[in-house]
Amino acid sequence: MTRSVETTGTAKIRETTRLTLIRTGLGIIREKGFNNSGLQEILQASGVPKGSFYHFFASKEDFGLAIIEYDAGEHQREMERFLGDTSCGAVERLRRYFEAKCRYFESRRHREGCLLGNLGQELADQNETFRVRIERFFADWCAALAGCLKEAQKAREIPAHLSPDSLAAFLVNSWEGAITQMKITKSTEPLQLFMDFVFGMLLKPSS
């Protein structure tokens, strides 16, 4: 029994250490980029010794992939929370989802942007493993939005002639572009323009 408790306790400590590394690295990489973020800086910020890092991750690339998995998981839970809320219509769910994102970026003072979008721009031509994983993230994102848009069509909230898959891809591409402009202009105006166009014109109820 004692050995089992010790094993469980040790496993929890290891997982806590691993998550500390991932969350610390995520914050630094989101601000500075992958190539400009050094392991020593991440280790110092997290308070984790170098030997422990290599207990969890074989390389910086392995660490970067773990960060992508973590961030993708957080995003998936966020989508499930908003898009799975059946207390309101599908278009309203989408609106609340993007409004929450707008509030987040406003709280960050227009900095950092989308982590996986940033990594895609930085690494897609340098590392095929990263490119493929990030591509899958965006495909999953589009699929989730398309599912919600299909619900909106069934409920006659949006025009039937629109392609949910194409519309979902347009939303993701437009949002990522708005985030880039937000960082450049240091203003939430690009995000507000996205919201006004998408929910004031594109996704207006069918007449």
TrEMBL record:
<feature type="domain" description="HTH tetR-type">
    <location>
        <begin position="15"/>
        <end position="75"/>
    </location>
</feature>
<dbReference type="GO" id="GO:0006355">
    <property type="term" value="P:regulation of DNA-templated transcription"/>
</dbReference>
<dbReference type="Pfam" id="PF00440">
    <property type="entry name" value="TetR_N"/>
</dbReference>
<dbReference type="InterPro" id="IPR001647">
    <property type="entry name" value="HTH_TetR"/>
</dbReference>
<keyword id="KW-0238">DNA-binding</keyword>
<dbReference type="GO" id="GO:0003700">
    <property type="term" value="F:DNA-binding transcription factor activity"/>
</dbReference>
<feature type="DNA-binding region" description="H-T-H motif">
    <location>
        <begin position="38"/>
        <end position="57"/>
    </location>
</feature>
<dbReference type="InterPro" id="IPR009057">
    <property type="entry name" value="Homeodomain-like_sf"/>
</dbReference>
<keyword id="KW-0804">Transcription</keyword>
<dbReference type="GO" id="GO:0000976">
    <property type="term" value="F:transcription cis-regulatory region binding"/>
</dbReference>
<dbReference type="InterPro" id="IPR036271">
    <property type="entry name" value="Tet_transcr_reg_TetR-rel_C_sf"/>
</dbReference>
<dbReference type="Pfam" id="PF16925">
    <property type="entry name" value="TetR_C_13"/>
</dbReference>
<protein>
    <submittedName>
        <fullName>TetR family transcriptional regulatory protein</fullName>
    </submittedName>
</protein>
<dbReference type="InterPro" id="IPR011075">
    <property type="entry name" value="TetR_C"/>
</dbReference>
<keyword id="KW-0805">Transcription regulation</keyword>
